[in-house]
Structure formats: structure tokens, C-alpha cells
Specification:
The chain is of the alpha+beta class and about 130 residues long. It has four helices and six strands. Strands 1-2 form a two-stranded antiparallel sheet. It folds into two domains: about 60 residues, no CATH class; about 45 residues, no CATH class. It is elongated and about 50 Å long. Helix 1 packs across helix 3 and helix 2 crosses helix 3.
Length: about 130
């Protein structure tokens, strides 16, 4: 399998994040066989004093943001998604607080599900009359 290659926008976002200027949100616009590989990015980073680990972490963040394709209906987005890598597991209390916040934000009870260590909250529509 070919090593992942990053386009110019992704490269800029990776080096900004690796240099601690904050994450950027590039768009995937390049074929997999064009651009630079992670190894090449790490080599460039090391030349300017950015650690390989920081470049790798920034690249993972780019991949996570690009991973979620939103669903559409009649050309309109019908869902939202956000992935955040915490580098640790949520405690039961933190998970419960997160679910409460999701229910308030989306005005939906939703349903929770667990499979092994995976936890999921899925929004189900609630009629306005149920308040």
C-alpha cells in the first residue's frame, strides 16, 4: 500500500499545527500519488527544528478532520460530525456530561450505545410538542 501523500494546503496546515500556531482545516484536493509523504514532511520539519512527533501528530489531526464525509439530502447537509482525539478515555462521568450537552444542543434525547470500549450517541428527532 502506498504511503499517504499530503497536498500543499495540508502541508501548510500540518506545519502550522506542528509549530503550535493552532490546527488548520485543509481540503483534500490531490491524488494519493501526488504531494509529500509523512516521512518527507518529517524530514523537512527536522531541518527547521520541528520534531518528527509534532509533525506526525499534526498530520493525524489533518487525517481525522478530513475523514468524516457529511451526508446530504437534496444537496443540503443533513448531519454534523466532529472527531476530537483526547489521547485518553473519557471517564463515565465525563461521558454522561457530554451526552447531556449533546441532548441540549440538538434538542434531542438520542440514544447511547456501547460496544466494548466504543461509546456512541446517535440523535433521534424529537417532535417540538414533546418539548
Amino acid at each position: 500500500m502506498a504511503e499517504r501523500r499530503y497536498n500543499d494546503k495540508e502541508i501548510a496546515a500540518i506545519f502550522r499545527a506542528a509549530a503550535e500556531e493552532g490546527p488548520q482545516t485543509p481540503q483534500r484536493e490531490v491524488a494519493r500519488d501526488e504531494g509529500l509523504t509523512l516521512s518527507e514532511l518529517q524530514a523537512i520539519g527536522s531541518e527547521v527544528g520541528i520534531s518528527s512527533a509534532a509533525v506526525a501528530q499534526a498530520a493525524r489531526a489533518v487525517d481525522v478532520r478530513l475523514g468524516g464525509a457529511s451526508r446530504t439530502f437534496l444537496g443540503l447537509r443533513i448531519g454534523v460530525a466532529r472527531t476530537v482525539n483526547l489521547n485518553r478515555r473519557l471517564t463515565d462521568e465525563e461521558w454522561e456530561r457530554l451526552v447531556v450537552q449533546l441532548r441540549e444542543v440538538f434538542n434531542a434525547r438520542g440514544r447511547t450505545r456501547s460496544e466494548g470500549s466504543l461509546r456512541q450517541w446517535t440523535n433521534s428527532l424529537r417532535s417540538p410538542a414533546s418539548g
